[in-house]
């Protein structure tokens, strides 16, 4: 789509004829305007579809989708949120009773929405999704600007246009289902993409703030501070030609302060109960309600005395990739961030399809890697079967009673394996492409990694 | 596995090279293997002997006492009550009143439930009456219950008064005994499956039912058409979306009925005798399996047990087999008058079978869970478990996957597939540009065709009376068929034009459709194997077998399209009706309408699958066959 215009600009650089350049610039402006219109159309269509379904079929949403374990987990369930709001309105601590495990930030927002008609809640969810799509589109545009020089000689570059990125996020069935189920994970997603966008635009303080909010909403996005810190350092590095450890340390300190302040503030309001109900609840995987992750089945099976050891191991597996992945892809922190989003989605303690939808939404930003992917057939199939089998096995296990937990867990394994395959493949693709860029003479050779 | 995007550029591993070389040829052997697997299932060598898994049931360990004078007079009491109720304003009220009074006089807590239902959404409404009586167990406090049910008409549209009489007798028997640990519910309906469904919905919290008991653990439905005596009983157990009762229930009923000398045969089919040849045995087993599979695929069975399975109640139907020469049956068929009671020994045998079954179920310690829930039964007291038949579905899916892999690898022009590392970058560029150009169009075609399927799905539900009459429903189906054909022609015509010729590639379209069908068939096969096989037969099979060449001649295209028309939903609909001996063009009682009703009332999957998978995939196959 934008390939032609890019080639044109490239041609223009080679033949500095002012008239041609002026004509090309006009054309570029025209295509930009058209692109903006297209983006607007996508956002409006996507929002309209969601709003129509939410208003026209409230039964589908409240009875069917929002109670599906694949879509809402104990830490993102809308029903639990409503319960928490109800408790807090009646001057009881919402964290009493062990039902509500979400951030007080959501409580504040939804206490406001509670007094308004339902329509406003629907509008907020639709708007949040549209904002995520818009931010993804902006990320695509920003990335296209930054990586113009980053190309393999002889390669035709296709850059996914912002509107295409927004389309692929908004019209992904998993995204639509997540919004319709009113899972509160979308607020965390908004914070994540905002943080990435702020980071790539050089607005470090904003990025830190957004990451802190995302971490407060669902804990795991805290690992994104590593790529954010690198983004901050990258802009300085370009000026000074070396990595500044001080920059990274400063970002980390600011983040620690922001997160600590948020937690302390709410701990002061709600007491330590708040901390136990949110952070501790997520880390210890205390609720073993089935979901599409790896924790629940394992922790049901395990003897109690081994639980502390294994939750440390499981959580380390989810969190420990932050530093190595970020450092390996330090030249492209946005890519490191995307990888981390994918890792979180596969390995967190209460995952849902919504987590995957954000990862899949970020992927079109790296369209240049698509042709390097080796196992896309395998991972696409695994994800399709994982998503298709989960409701079937749930139906057999819970509704008919003819299956059992092993059925559903098998579907979960397929789903997680699909994500892991995709992650490995993506990392490998990135490395091979970097090799092609830095050592163009190897691009016609076979590379064997050992 | 890396057959997709990576194909172009990276050096392939030896396994990958082998895969690319042979994947083209793998699809057909796999397809053949799956068919052979299915054909092998009826062989006795591949089946296992049935057994009781739940030892607590202890079938046939009790003396049966049913059949005394009192029990017989309780059965006659129904006739007396029916005669007394002759002033009632309609037949339903008369029957319900009689049963209610009979149950009351036996000391059951009874209740009448009046309800209205529409067979297909938006089409009129029929009223029905349920009557049920609860016998309170002496040894527990109504936390669990067993259920015996009958509908006033059998599935062959005869009166089922014998079953109602037998229920009165059984109620009399049961009320005399002290050993019940579970309540026994006797339910009589005149609305068939809809009546049972309405009753179950009310019982499980839908409201409108006041006399209740505990969790229903098992249900036995009775169908006894008018006859002097029965040659045996038919045992039917298929539910709506592939649901089956636990195999233990089927086994104990078969075992008990054999001991009581009125054997319950699966689908009323007697096994081939021991002395017969293997071919005879094979044919008998194959026939029985085919009946089960078709019954599970379309969700229609004899009896009213199907709704119970949706509520986690293991249930089956016992249906009396009438001899063709039975005098009472012949008299009923010619005159239509209410028939006399069957011969006492028959009544006693059936009654004792139910009695012994109730005693066994009374022993149940927890919900049925020991034995299989997924099985097909090739002969009486033999079974094939899921592990033995699911590989057939796996092979079908694998056949689709391999052909899809091969087609995906072969798409685009030939020079994109060379191994020369020197041209790697050019190849990647060409390949990627090709995908960028064609993939959106392919997805677009699939989406457009599916939009038609969505319209097909929603219209009969959204527009009332759309399927009311013969004429409108026939017109509706044919309008949709016409719309489909014009859509196929339009889409294939668009891509015939020279200027846009390279905008799509039939190999890509076929590969994507195959992957999609593979996912649907794969996921469905674990839930409803029969439906998955049927779906594969009408979508996957034509998909694999059509458009297998690269350069199509006119004759081949015509042959393909004719074959696909033959496999199209409209054609199968007409043919299946003709095969059943019904008027092929009368759609008011067509499977289409039946599927719609089942989807609406019982959430069965046949209707959405026809609209969203079968119909669109058939059209996509035609588009593939017509593509340049």
Automatic annotation (TrEMBL), chain A:
Parts forming coiled coils: none
Keyword entries, A-Z: Endoplasmic reticulum, GPI-anchor biosynthesis, Membrane, Transmembrane, Transmembrane helix
Any single Gene Ontology cellular-component annotation: GPI-anchor transamidase complex
Keyword Transmembrane carried by entry: yes
Transmembrane region(s): 39-61, 119-141, 180-200, 206-234, 255-275, 309-327, 372-394, 406-424
Topology of this chain in the membrane: Multi-pass membrane protein
Compartmental location: Endoplasmic reticulum membrane
PANTHER family: GPI TRANSAMIDASE COMPONENT PIG-U (PTHR13121), PHOSPHATIDYLINOSITOL GLYCAN ANCHOR BIOSYNTHESIS CLASS U PROTEIN (PTHR13121:SF0)
Protein name: Uncharacterized protein
The organism of origin for this protein: Coemansia pectinata
Organism taxonomic ancestry: Eukaryota, Fungi, Fungi incertae sedis, Zoopagomycota, Kickxellomycotina
TrEMBL record, chain B:
One cellular component term from this protein's GO annotations in UniProt: GPI-anchor transamidase complex
Keywords attached to this entry: Membrane, Transmembrane, Transmembrane helix
Signal peptide: none
One GO term (biological process): attachment of GPI anchor to protein
A family per Pfam: Gaa1
ATP-binding as UniProt keyword: no
Regions crossing the membrane: 22-43, 445-468, 475-496, 516-546, 558-579, 599-626
UniProt KW Phosphoprotein keyword: no
UniProt-recorded name of the protein: Glycosyl phosphatidyl inositol protein transamidase complex subunit
Gene: GAA1
